[in-house]
């Protein structure tokens, strides 16, 4: 994205992207995902978990499952976060001249795309199957483990059971 900025001479998209990422992790994700997470119910005004440790808890804990709009917001945000860097890089490629420069830049764009796919694959394979935030649309914790967890968490069990 830095190279795309140098090539195009415009940093507007990069700055918008950075603003979106900061806003997502500090406000949006807390609102649509984290406040449904068991980690969020811990005492104090700041989150204590393995991912967003130290961020302020702007809303009260909500043990009920996330609704369809919250899930849709999360999925859309992830698509934007993963897809925008590639679009910005392709924007640079569109005006880049010289075959060698284009080949190198194309290779870097492929590498970026692979890194993004790799990151989400890593999350999906190693974290999503053992995450306790069952509200997340990407959660893949096996059904029997979910049930065992809910059996030991009466607050969440009650909130989830009231929807059955
Ligand atoms: S573990 Fe994930 S969903 Fe839960 S509070 Fe931390 S960042 Fe949010």
Descriptive keywords:
mainly alpha, 0% strand, binds iron/sulfur cluster, 6 helices
Short recap of the structure:
This protein is mostly helical and 164 residues long. It has 6 helices and no strands.
Question: What can you see in these coordinates?
Answer:
The chain is an all-alpha fold and 164 residues long. It has one domain (2-161). 62% of the residues lie in helices and 0% in strands. The protein binds iron/sulfur cluster (SF4). The site of iron/sulfur cluster has 10 residues, from loops.
Number of helices: 6
Structural class call reads mainly alpha
List low-confidence stretches. none
Mean pLDDT: 93
- Over all CA atoms, what is the radius of gyration? 20 Å
Lay out the secondary structure:
Layout: H1 2-8, H2 12-32, H3 68-95, H4 99-127, H5 143-151, H6 154-161
Bound molecules: iron/sulfur cluster.
Residues 33-34, 37, 39-40, 47, 49, 51-52, 133 line the site of iron/sulfur cluster (SF4).
């Amino acid at each position: 994205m830095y190279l795309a900025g140098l090539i195009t001479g415009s940093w507007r998209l990069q700055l918008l992207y950075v603003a979106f990422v900061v806003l997502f992790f500090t406000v949006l994700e807390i609102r649509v995902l984290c406040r449904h997470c068991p980690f969020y119910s811990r005492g104090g005004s700041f989150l204590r978990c393995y991912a967003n440790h130290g961020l302020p808890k702007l809303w009260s804990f909500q043990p009920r499952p996330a609704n369809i709009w919250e899930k849709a917001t999360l999925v859309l945000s992830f698509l934007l976060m993963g897809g925008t860097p590639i679009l910005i890089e392709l924007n640079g490629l569109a005006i880049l001249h010289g075959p060698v420069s284009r080949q190198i830049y194309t290779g870097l764009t492929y590498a970026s795309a692979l890194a993004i796919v790799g990151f989400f694959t890593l999350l999906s394979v190693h974290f999503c199957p053992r995450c306790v935030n069952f509200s997340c649309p990407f959660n893949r914790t096996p059904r029997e483990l979910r049930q065992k967890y809910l059996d030991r968490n009466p607050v969440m069990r009650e909130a989830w059971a009231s929807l059955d």
